[in-house]
Amino acid sequence: MEYKNDKTANRRRYKSRYHSPHNYKTKRSKAENRAAILVGIATFIVLASLVLVFTFGDNIYSFLDRTFHPSGDTTPAGATLGIATEPGVRPTDSNSVAFPTIASPSETATQPATDATPQSADFNRLMTAAGLTPAAVKGSQLIFVETSGTDATVYAYEKDASGVWTQKFDPAQGYTGEGGAAVNTVPYDAVTPKGVFNIEFAMGTNPDPGTALSYHEIYYGLRWITDPASVNYNRLVEEDESNIDYETSQDLSEYTVSYPYCVIYDYNRNPVDPAKGCSKFLHVGSAPNSRGGIGISEDALYRILVWLDPALTPQIAIF
User: pTM surpassing 0.70?
Assistant: First the structure.
């Protein structure tokens, strides 16, 4: 091929030599090889570093710590300061370091609830209606019975370690005696007594549900004396133990509907006043009753029984 001049020929030969597809591909392949070699070297360095750290990490850290933070004190801890070196032993030397005292959970005193302890609005309302203050309540379990005519609503509250009272269950709807609720009752009436009473024990025709209270399973011959002339008035007795000194009583084994479970509180119990009423229990009921007890559903009473704990000095407030 002929060219117009030597300059054009040289340019064509240069482009043909250095810009042919074959030479371009060869140059690109070598660059890729170099990049792969560099990536491999970097990967090896990273993996080797990780192996060294995991294998000799503690020794490396100790070496660096000694190098950059020299201690200068080689005396064993406690040797010259009067500090006990045995675990759990406090210093007894007069020159020993004073340690702050940290109370363990068992050493932390539970503060009694006071009128200043924040309480829920519902609890404050019930306390006001019952004429009580938190400081006046003896224990940590409290049952409220709010009455209106012959209707009753039963609430269960428990106090925690900080003195805050918390409702344990949904309120249970129930009934008082047919005579409603009043402060004073008389023998054979159907009035539910108002006031704050200590919970004593439980009984029922059903087996013990697992309550922590003292529980008496009712059997034939177990009676509650309702005769105010008897020395056993308002007492639980076996028929042959009372010397038949009564004219009226409840044969408890017959009360399978009302007394599958019941809770006895200390209204007119100690001392017993023959001028006041008796048989005032928290029991099972679906209507106003003729004895003046508080009736709620069996399920609700079961929950309360399992919850009650004499160690927490439970009480019941009826208002």
Answer: no
